[in-house]
Design brief:
The structure is a single chain. By secondary structure, the protein is mostly helical. The mean pLDDT is about 85. About 75% of the residues lie in helices and about 0% in strands. The chain has one domain.
Amino acid sequence: MISIDKISHWSIAHNPKWLAFVRVGLGLALLTKGLSFLYHPLSFHDLVTSSLKVNAVWVDNSIIWINIIAGFFILIGFLTRLASIVQFPLVLGALFFVNAGDSVFAFQNSLIFSVLILLLLAVFFVEGDGPVSITNYVKNENNNS
């Protein structure tokens, strides 16, 4: 089985700097989606209740804050692998429960958005923070001291 150290070593050697722009875009997308849920709590509660058949406010709040915090961490490049793996079940749930009945060609299609986000989360779980990130900056500062 491949260990996290092997994945980390590979991603350090093969992580191009332009991928940081994609990571920032992914983080912004997740962060804005979480903020959208936060600013429209009744609509989001109705969506969660109808798709998951769960009427619990803590489920709504958990989903909202995981989106916001994980999106922010991915945006700045801090604990990107952890944020990606935490976000993965939420996006899978959105794919299977919320978007299951959507048509691929619908006007406001979030199915394609969810699939794209899921693929990018998998990429950044493997790639990690990258050379342009808060984690890399802190490592370099500690090595220079």
